[in-house]
Write a structure and sequence with these properties.
Elements: H1 11-36, H2 41-44, H3 47-59
Helix pairs in contact: 1-3
Amino acid sequence: MINIQESKLGLQDYFYIGYLYLIILGIVSDAIFYGIFGVSYLNYTTILDALISPVSLLTNNWKI
């Protein structure tokens, strides 16, 4: 019989995977948004823009 072990991912691993997901989501959403206007987002973006895009997406619609 095959023994299936429980996932050994810690909290830090889940945060890492979640942040990678948010980075990819931010890049794809910005590329689609600017692609509608005919602008190649990936040619004009910097590394900092890509890393900050998840934070920007999350805080964009919050009302303080």
